[in-house]
């Protein structure tokens, strides 16, 4: 059962929006505009009390997080980057599965040695509650100001799961950028999604135009975009972006900063291509 009730105000507004409740679990940067960029799986931090129960190594955990996606979130007017690891609390899953010890929920990988103490589970669920309470307050404020909001839900994915020396996954099922657009209203935002994708394709990355397609790897959206659509309907256009980890070596975690910057520049161009649609809602 979802439980996002929190009576404490997260934001206040004088001449501009002000964050009243900073958190150790995420960073929120508030700018002036209707574009929100999130990187909710960027984080690697994990509280000390959970570490003894981990069956995963540090390297395994980082491999299945979304490192450096926070750099891509810099294109947002509002930026939300989560510091906490998805394995401490997965904010892209329903509350009931936000911290799961079932390998079926973690791609068949055994993350935990066994069941977790109820107190540890409750601490993670409390973070899930605070996050969704904060996001609701944030989006409510932005909608009151702008009328509609573009949310970029930024992630990354592995394409070399068979090993560091094994062949990469076949490109036809693994585009450079997979756009999840199942949780936006196609009648209201379909053309926006098309322009956004075309702008991404037009910006070269590593000397070529990236392969950008829609709904290839993930037919359904994650809980976060689904919750946004269920809560706000057509007033919020959420595009989930899954970047193939061609910007880094997913086994050594060595990053190619130039490629990340090229992806970020392409994403900024895509935002600029559709920004007018959201400014016009006022």
Defining traits:
single chain, 282 residues, alpha/beta, Aminopeptidase, 7-stranded mixed sheet, two-stranded antiparallel ribbon, 6 helices, 9 strands, globular
Strand arrangement within the widest β-sheet reads: 3-5-4-6-9-7-8
Q: How would a textbook summarize the main sheet? A: 7 strands, mixed
User: Unreliable segments (pLDDT under 50, ≥5 consecutive)?
Assistant: none
Radius of gyration, in Å, reads: 18 Å
**Count of the separate structural domains:** 1
User: Can you say what the CATH homologous superfamily is?
Assistant: Zn-dependent exopeptidases
Give the helix tally.
Answer: 6
CATH class: Alpha Beta
Q: Report the sheet-strand fraction.
A: 15-25%
Molecular shape:
globular
Instruction: Report how far apart the termini are.
Output: 35 Å
Percent of residues in helices comes to: 25-40%
Short description:
It contains six helices and nine strands. With 282 residues, the chain is of the alpha/beta class.
What do you see in this structure?
- The chain has one domain: Zn-dependent exopeptidases (Aminopeptidase).
- Strand 7, helix 4 (186-201) and strand 8 (212-214) form a beta-alpha-beta unit.
- The mean pLDDT is 94.
- The radius of gyration is 18 Å and the shape is globular.
- The protein has six helices and nine strands.
- By secondary structure, the chain is an alpha/beta fold.
- The strands form two sheets. It has a seven-stranded mixed beta sheet with strand order 3-5-4-6-9-7-8, with helices on both faces.
- The chain has helices at residues 58-63, 69-72, 118-146, 186-201, 223-232, 257-279; strands at residues 11-13, 17-19, 26-30, 35-39, 78-82, 149-157, 177-180, 212-214, 236-244.
- Helix 4 (186-201) runs antiparallel to helix 6 (257-279).
